[in-house]
Amino acid sequence: MGKHFGNLARVRHVITYSLSPFEQQAFPNIVSHGVPNAGRRFASQVLKVVPPLAIGYLIYSWGTQEFERLKRKNPADYEHDQ
Question: Which candidate, 5, 25, 28, 82, has a CA 20 to 30 Å from the CA of 67?
Answer without folding.
Answer: 82
